[in-house]
């Protein structure tokens, strides 16, 4: 494989290369929730993507070593929450291993299909899981949107260069 002049120094594929490249990619921040055997589970995701309009479907990736994986692996439904720039601490809580994600500081309620729904988010959806595709140490989850609410307030929270950010005008 040849590299075009002026494009820098190419490095072989590695986890570090992938992380370094994606640090330069700004991504929206979402929290995925589900109902586990021992209660609600959830995690912060920057891999949320629209898949299909007919029927409405989305995807996200989840690590098979994560504390949320078992509930996602066996459950039928998930909640998908688009976070606003005012929710950096919420995003950090759901990203932190061992955090009390559904403790007193997290406003949430039981939503449709028993899915935990976070309060005060710009938008949320409840989805039915239709596929879990192996992808290295993760699974790509494909889910069909059943219902949602896009009427919350706030500008989107972004993740870039290893930290949460806001849009600037």
UniProtKB/TrEMBL annotation:
| This protein's UniProt keywords | Oxidoreductase
MF GO annotations: FMN binding; riboflavin reductase (NADPH) activity
Domain named Flavin reductase like: residues: 22-166
* Protein origin, superkingdom: Bacteria
Q: Which InterPro entries match?
A: Flavin_Rdtase-like_dom, NADH-dep_flavin_reductase, Split_barrel_FMN-bd
Which Gene Ontology BP terms does the record give? Answer: pyrimidine nucleobase catabolic process
SMART domains reported in the protein's UniProt record: Flavin_Reduct
This chain's protein is named Flavin reductase like domain-containing protein
Give the originating organism.
Streptomyces griseoflavus Tu4000
